[in-house]
Amino acid sequence: MTVKKLRIIKEITEKFEDCPPRADSLINSLRAFGYNLSMALADLIDNSIFAEADTVKIDYSWNEGDPWVRISDDGKGMTEKQLYKAMKVGSSSPNEVRNPKDLGRFGLGLKTASWSQCKYFFVRTKTPDGEISTRCWDLDHVEKSNKWEIGKTINKEQETLVSPISEYNSGTVIVWKKLDRFFDNSPKTNSAYIKFNRRFLEEVVPYLEMIFHKLIGEGKNKLKIFVGQHECSPWDPYLSKSNFTQILSKQKFENDRVKVVPYVLPHVNHRDVNENEYGAGPLGWNAQQGFYVYRNNRMIVSGGYLNLGGLKQEEHLKLARIELEISNDMDHLWDLDVRKAIARPPENIKEELLRIAKATRKKAGEVYRARSGRGRKRATTRTEKVWIKKNINNGMIKYQINLDNLVVKKILEKADIDKILIKKLFYLLEVTIPHREIIFSNFENENCHIDFDESTQPPKEMVEYCKNLFEKKRKGNSSDNEAIDFVCAIEPFDTNPFYRTTLENIVENE
C-alpha cells in the first residue's frame, strides 16, 4: 500500500467512524410502516409479478391456534445470491435505475411487509435450472443476538409448508409464522379463529381485486391470484362495459409519462342492482370517487383528490373517477411511499390535475342532478321550489313553504282537512326548522347531510300527479322533452329519477 493511500485512510478514520444501527431497535421500527394485511400481501404479489409469475396463491391455516400464511408463485425464482440480496434490508436504492417493469423501489417490501404481520418468515425459491435456496428472518433471534443475522435452514414442519415449490418448474414460496400482529391478546379463542378466516375473504380479496384489476383475469399474459380456493376477479372502477359510462377528454403530460382518463359513471337510473353493488367497490360509492393512480398497471391510490385545491369527496360528485397512470421512473417525483399506498403529484402538474378534477366533478354533478342522466337545464320559477328564501330586516333570512308550488297547491286543493289547520302545520314546520343544528353539523362534517334516497320509488299518488301534470303541459304548445323538463324541475319531482324515467317511458312506448 502506498504512502498516499495510507495517508488518505488515516484522514478518513480521523474524520469518520462506523455507526451501524442497533438491529433489535431498527428492525422493530421497520414493523411500524403502517401496512395492513391486504397491503402487505399486495407488496409480496408485486415481487411475484416482477418475477413473471402466471399464478400467485395465498393459502392460510388456523393450525389450532398456531396459524400460518403462505404466498407462493410460479415465477422465475431466485439464485442463492439473489435471495440473499432480497432478504437484506435496503437491498436496493430508490435512486437506482430500475427495470421499467419493476414494481419495487426501496428494497424493503419483502421484509417490511412480512414483519408488519409476523415475527418469523422463511423463503424457499427455485430457479428454472433447479437451484433451490432457503433463507429466514426470525425477529426473536435478532432481538437476542442484536445482529443482522438470517437463518439458512428450516425444520421438518416448515419443510412441509414450502412443499408447493416442488410443483413448480421454478418459483418462490414465502411463509409467515408467529403472526403476532393478527390478534389482540387471545389468539386461541374461537372469535379469533373466525376473525382470522374472515379477514381473507372480506378484506384481502376485495382489495386485491381492486389493486390488480388491470393485471388479473382471463386471456393471454393475465395473472391469476387465488386466496384460498377463491380465484380473484378484476374489479373495474369505471364500469367501462356500461353504455352509459362517459369518458371525457384523455390527456397526457410529462412526455407521455403521465396519462389521465376522466370517467363519469352512469346515474343510478342507468345501473341495475348488480352494477349498483359492484360499482360501489370495497369502500362505497362516495369514498371511491376521485383519482386512481397506477404504476405499471398496478393501482397505488384508489380514490380521493390527491390534496388538490382542497377538493373533497361529496355525495353529489360520487360518479367522478379519474384514471391516472405514471411510469415507474417518476416514483421520486410522486413521493410514493414504501407501502405503495400514497402518491403526491409534483408541483408542476398540480394545476393541470386540478383543472381535470374540477371539470370531471362538474360533469359528474350534472349527471347526478339530471336524475335520469340526461336532463336539460331550464330557468327556475317560483312555482317549482317547495321552500323559498325570504330576506327580512337587517340581512336576516327565513325559509317558508311555498304555497305557489304546483304540488303543494294540488295537495291543498284535494285535502279533506281544514285548510287553516294545514297552514298552521306549515307554520309549525317553518318556525321549528333546526337551522343552528344543521349549520353546526355541517361545520363539523360537511358531508354528513345526505340527499333523499333516489333509489327509493316514490308514492304512486305522487307519480300519478307527475304524469297528469306532464299530460296537461304537453297538451299545450310544449314538446315532449319540454314538458318532461318542466315537470321534472318542480320539487319534489326533481328529487328522484323515477319521475323522469316514468315520463320518458310514456313517450318511448307511444
Shape: elongated
Roughly how many Å is the radius of gyration?
A: 31 Å
User: Looking across the biggest beta sheet, what order are the strands in?
Assistant: 4-3-5-2-1-6-7
Look up the CATH topology of the largest domain: Heat Shock Protein 90
Assembly type of the chains comes to single chain
Major beta-sheet overview:
7 strands, mixed
The CATH class of the largest domain, by name, is Alpha Beta
What is the total number of structural domains?
3
Poorly predicted runs are 93-100, 102-107, 372-380
Structural class call reads alpha+beta
Q: What's the overall average pLDDT, rounded? A: 83
Report the helical percentage: 25-40%
What's the architecture of the largest domain, going by CATH?
A: 2-Layer Sandwich
Tell me the number of strands. 15
Please count the helical segments. Answer: 16
Distance between the termini: 100 Å
Strand content: 15-25%
Primary descriptors:
16 helices, seven-stranded mixed sheet, 15 strands, elongated, 510 residues, Ribosomal Protein S5, domain 2, alpha+beta, six-stranded mixed sheet
What is the secondary structure topology, with strand pairs?
Blueprint: H1 3-15, H2 23-29, H3 37-50, E1 55-61, E2 68-73, H4 80-87, H5 109-115, E3 120-126, E4 132-138, H6 139-145, H7 156-161, E5 171-177, H8 190-211, E6 224-227, E7 230-231, E8 246-247, E9 251-253, E10 258-264, H9 273-280, E11 290-295, E12 298-302, E13 320-326, H10 347-370, E14 387-391, E15 397-401, H11 406-414, H12 419-431, H13 435-444, H14 460-474, H15 480-487, H16 497-508
Parallel strand pairs: 1-6, 11-13
Antiparallel strand pairs: 1-2, 2-5, 3-4, 3-5, 6-7, 8-10, 9-10, 10-13, 11-12, 14-15
